[in-house]
Design brief:
Blueprint: H1 14-20, E1 26-30, H2 36-44, E2 50-53, H3 57-70, E3 79-83, E4 86-88, E5 95-98, H4 100-110, E6 117-120, H5 128-140, E7 144-149, H6 154-161, E8 164-168, E9 175-179, H7 193-204, E10 210-214, H8 218-231, H9 233-237, E11 241-246, H10 252-259, E12 265-270, E13 283-288, E14 291-298, E15 301-308, H11 311-318, E16 327-331, H12 353-361, H13 377-389, H14 401-406, H15 413-421, H16 425-439, E17 445-446, H17 451-460, H18 466-474, E18 483-484, H19 486-503, H20 516-526, E19 531-534, E20 541-543, E21 548-551, E22 563-573, E23 580-590, H21 592-597, E24 602-611, E25 614-623, E26 626-633, H22 637-649, H23 657-673, H24 691-702, H25 707-710, H26 725-734, E27 738-741, E28 744-751, E29 756-763, E30 782-787, E31 790-793
Helix pairs in contact: 2-3, 7-8, 12-13, 15-16, 16-18, 16-19, 16-20, 22-24
């Protein structure tokens, strides 16, 4: 990094900054390379203790080390930092750099009482945690606030804070820009990206000092490094060229190599962690893919997708060059590509469960806070529903005691809820370890290739359970033939140890044995929405009644399993406008019987039958469209009556009753619709009748309780007094329910509003269509004949 005692563009505002800070919140707008991230904390510390909130872990530790070095000391004394798994500061540190998550946790504990000034750096990234932190600190009005950004709508933010705005110049050297695209409007594209970047590097590397390549993710970084290694293997073997990855989970060694000058020429392949805050000395060439991975809302879910960057981000990336001399930026997209002006705020792109719980635990219902941009109402309601269901907040949006237990755990709110809901220590430990394994940035392990290794995996973990595989790996059972990422596994273990320590659980090396059935049944009870059943026809799909998931390629879920707990999902934009593809990436197969044991689904009545032992009804338990259990039982209560009605309707009991009363009721309803009702002659009230309901009333009135009771009655005991007897035959002649011709039986439908009669083929082998003269007169009605899907006018 550039030494802080050098003159920097930000130095021009030092006097104004120190003069206005005691009385006003400040918005500092300065282009990348101005020195704002290192100078402002030192200035502010002259007036009291300073907390600096940096959006990225890499920047947090790097900036603290730089400022400490400028003060002639090691980090951890007057200048310190706090990130997950690494705290280097004391209560006497004047300046403490922290990530937003740490700042929010400290705010919930003591209100940041020991700090006078809070600097929120790189606010233009619009992370949900920095937006939330600013909204709560503004409401508390107990700290002097400084918000910095390289690209921001400064007037709007200054008005929001009611403060003052200071602006400083940017980089010291010019950065030229060129574009590689066949058309000036071409958007960033991931296709052939590694080969494009390799070609640019091969053409340009000898004319530059260090090179910084911006890529969307770790996968692309790995692919590009492999491609460039092949192309420049001689320079790498000679020790003159160093290829360095830089992303959120790189080792300290790689981070140090990326941020420290070297005798070798360096090519640094980075995600957007290098876009802001950190300075990489010696970079004179930027290669920008124009892509990033970021979240967005889609049908109520947070989806991670590949996106083109905004214009603001493009300028930030460009600004990483030009620190030591004039630089150049090569963009792999068109000059006129229609990029967004700025990246939308995370609070508009993601679910609000975590922000809502964080705000509640800091003493503020999220709905009561005023943000720079108003929050989406739909997302607010969805988050409130989820947290209320977990009993983490109350109806007023305030944190419950259970919610305060969940919040400090450094994992997803659902996982925190599951950990605290476990009924015994062994289940709680299992849930902690699995949560830690699923909360790290990348997968801990990958499916091995080759039949031999797959067989070994099956012997090693025979249940085909992704969850148990992760737990075994965290607890030290790592087969040499399995594809493990040691750095990610180490991070997952540290996270598990941190949560175990916070909850007073044994450390990993003495973990309690997992009682799998007890543990998974406890999870099913605490979070029933995680229980999915397989579709009977589309075997790759499973549903829970609310959404559908597809088995991911890296899941070991067996073909023979019919139900599963889905612990982790990965949502991708689908091909349709309103479609998501939700991959189930961590599954635990469970027997269908467990769902029945825990009373999942609803009981419905299936078929009925009569045998020598009496009348029987099939009881079905249905969950997410699947019958998960069935058994036959003697009908009782309401079930008994429904069973008797089913048997009458299918003709097993009182044969002929159902058909006869169906016609009677059909004619009565038609009689009413035609306005023929006369209160002086009709015994029934003028209301339509439904056959099943009418049979139920008759069975009730006769006191029938069993099939044996019903067999004591005849059809005459179930008379229907609808159309008066003296009028019925004439009505049936005028409006028949059925018409029978030679070898042709038709049922008649009457559509009164359209004055239409449809004769529907029921049976008969007659090939010719009926003629108009063969049918009843139906004066004034249009007549049609329907056989299967064919409909014709009868003339």
């Amino acid at each position: 990094m550039q030494p802080a005692h050098f003159s920097l563009p930000i130095d021009a505002i030092e006097t104004d900054f120190l003069a206005q800070l005691p009385t006003s919140h400040l918005v500092v707008v300065a282009e990348t390379g101005s020195g704002k991230s290192t100078r402002l904390p030192v200035w502010a510390a002259q007036q009291g203790r300073v907390l600096v909130v940096e959006p990225r872990r890499v920047a947090c530790s790097a900036l603290a080390e730089f400022v400490a070095q400028y003060r002639g000391e090691k980090v951890g004394h007057s200048v310190g930092y706090a990130i997950r798994f690494d705290n280097q500061f004391t209560d006497n540190s004047d300046i403490v750099f922290v990530t937003p998550g740490v700042a929010l946790r400290w705010l919930s504990e003591d209100g940041l009482a020991s700090f006078k000034t809070v600097i929120i750096d790189e606010f233009h990234e619009r992370r949900w945690d920095t937006d939330l932190l600013l909204a709560m600190l503004k409401t508390r009005a107990q700290h002097r606030l400084v918000v910095t950004s390289a690209t921001l709508d400064s007037e709007r933010l200054t008005a929001y804070l009611g403060g003052q705005c200071l602006q400083a110049a940017g980089r010291n050297f010019a950065v030229s820009v060129s574009h590689i695209a066949s058309d000036s409007r071409n958007m960033p594209d991931e296709r052939h990206m590694d080969s494009q970047i390799t070609n640019v590097i091969v053409e340009q590397y000898q004319a530059h000092q260090d090179i910084l390549v911006f890529l969307p993710g770790r996968k692309e970084i790995t692919q590009c490094i492999a491609s460039v290694k092949k192309a420049l293997c001689r320079d790498i073997e000679n020790g003159t060229l160093d290829l360095i990855p830089l992303h959120a989970s790189v080792s300290d060694s790689d981070r140090h190599r990326a941020l420290t000058e070297s005798d070798k020429q360096r090519i640094i392949f980075s995600t957007n962690v290098a876009e802001t805050s950190v300075t990489i000395p010696g970079v004179t060439l930027i290669i920008d893919s124009g892509l990033e991975r970021r979240t967005h809302q889609r049908n109520g879910r947070t989806v991670l997708g590949l996106h083109a960057i905004s214009r603001a981000s493009a300028e930030q990336r460009k600004g990483r060059a030009g620190r030591v001399r004039d630089g150049h930026c090569i963009r792999l997209y068109g000059q006129a590509a229609p990029l967004e002006l700025i990246t939308p705020p995370e609070l508009h792109r993601e679910e609000l469960v975590e922000p809502m719980l964080a705000a509640a635990c800091c003493g503020y219902p999220l709905k009561d806070l005023l943000f720079v941009d108003a929050l989406p109402e739909k997302s607010m309601q969805q988050a409130a529903d989820k947290l209320t269901g977990m009993q983490a907040i109350n109806d007023k949006g305030e944190a419950t005691p259970h919610g305060r237990v969940l919040y400090p755990l450094p994992i997803d709110t659902l996982f925190a809820h599951l950990i605290t809901a476990m009924p015994d220590k062994a289940s709680r430990e299992a849930m902690v370890d699995l949560s830690a394994a699923l909360s790290v940035y990348q997968r801990v392990w990958n499916m091995p290739s080759g039949e031999e290794r797959l067989e070994k995996l099956t012997k090693w973990e025979p249940l085909h359970c992704d969850a148990m595989t992760l737990i075994k790996l965290l607890r030290g059972h790592v087969p040499e033939w399995l594809n493990i990422d040691p750095a990610i596994l180490a991070e997952a273990r540290m996270l598990a140890e941190q949560i175990r320590d916070a909850l007073g659980l044994p450390m990993l090396e003495v973990a309690s044995s997992v009682r799998r059935e007890d543990w998974l049944k406890a999870v099913m009870t605490a979070a029933p929405e995680l229980v999915f059943v397989r579709r009977e026809r589309r075997r790759q799909a499973l549903g829970n009644g609310y959404c559908e998931v597809t088995i991911a390629r890296d899941s070991r879920y067996p073909e023979t399993a019919e139900a599963a707990l889905v612990f982790d999902q990965f949502a991708l934009p689908g091909k349709g406008v309103k479609q998501n593809t939700i991959l189930a990436t961590c599954m635990a197969p469970v027997p269908m019987d467990w769902l029945n044991d825990l009373a999942f689904g609803d009981t419905v009545f299936g078929d009925t039958k009569v045998d020598e032992d009496g009348c029987w009804v099939e009881h079905q338990r249905v969950y997410a469209g699947r019958v998960i259990h069935r058994h036959w039982a003697l009908p009782q209560g309401e079930c008994a009556q429904e069973a008797l009605i089913d048997l009458v309707l299918e003709g097993t009991l009182l044969p002929g009753l159902s058909e006869a009363r169906h016609v009677d009721i059909h004619q009565w309803n038609l009689y009413l619709s035609l306005g023929r009702y006369d209160a002086s002659t009709c015994l029934l009230s003028p209301e339509p009748v439904e056959l099943r309901s009418w049979l139920s009333e008759q069975i009730d009135a006769l006191g029938v309780e069993s099939a044996e009771d019903l067999e004591m009655f005849t059809l005459d005991d179930f008379a229907f007094s609808g159309i008066p007897d003296w009028e019925r035959s004439d009505f049936d002649a005028e409006y028949p329910h059925q018409v029978v011709l030679t070898d042709l039986v038709m049922e008649i439908e009457y559509h009164l509003a359209r004055k239409l009669v449809i004769a529907v083929h029921v049976s008969g082998k007659r090939k010719q269509d009926p003629k108009r003269w063969e049918l009843p007169r139906w004066n004034g009605w249009k007549v049609q004949y329907r056989k299967a899907s064919r409909v014709i006018d009868v003339r």
